[in-house]
Amino acid sequence: KRIKKLTKEKKKLRPRMTLDYEDINIDFYNAFKGYLTDEGYKINTIGRCIKQLKYFMAKSLAEKKHNNREFKETAFTSMTEEVFNISLSAEEIEALYNYDARGDKKIEVARDKFIVLCETALRVSDYDKIDVNIRTVNGTPLIYLYQTKTNNRVIIPLTQRMEEILLKYNGTLPRIHENDVNRLIK
Predict the structure, then answer these.
(1) d(Cα 153, Cα 10) in Å, to the nearest integer?
(2) How far is Cα 84 from Cα 144, in angstroms, rounded to an integer?
(3) Which residues pair with 145 in a beta bridge?
(4) Residues of the chain whose pLDDT is less than 70?
(5) From CA 134, how far away is CA 126, in angstroms rounded?
(6) Across-strand partners of 143?
(7) pLDDT, position 90
């Protein structure tokens, strides 16, 4: 896909390289960082790639596959920058909820799943647990579940929007793959 895209954009293809463990040195590090920067990757993504490379090199060194220790030099560092994640305001969530999908069922389902994730502040991994764990206590519908990642118990009151979405889907939540949600919401 990438080669087709670059060819279509009439961009020069980089030559394919075969690397050996001994090729992972400061010159490679600088060239690799430059390549990732040229490709438009952000600092934290570049840092994650460098960190994975260093892990791979350390693991293979421990397994005695090479003797290259240059990746341990202080100049061979991964980098990070603080990021500010911007959340949606209540007005923006309401605007999404009221968005007219013009009969496009897939966009409608993606929007509804996104709204539920916004309303609950749950991880995607906990989304499937919601509809089977709703109980009413003193007239208030509540979601009870144990989070997958932390195993912490959470209790979340159902909002009016969530109740309307549940009614719309006959007591269950809309099902669509998270990649589709990300693509369609954008």
Answers:
(1) 54
(2) 30
(3) 154
(4) 131-132
(5) 13
(6) 134, 156
(7) 86
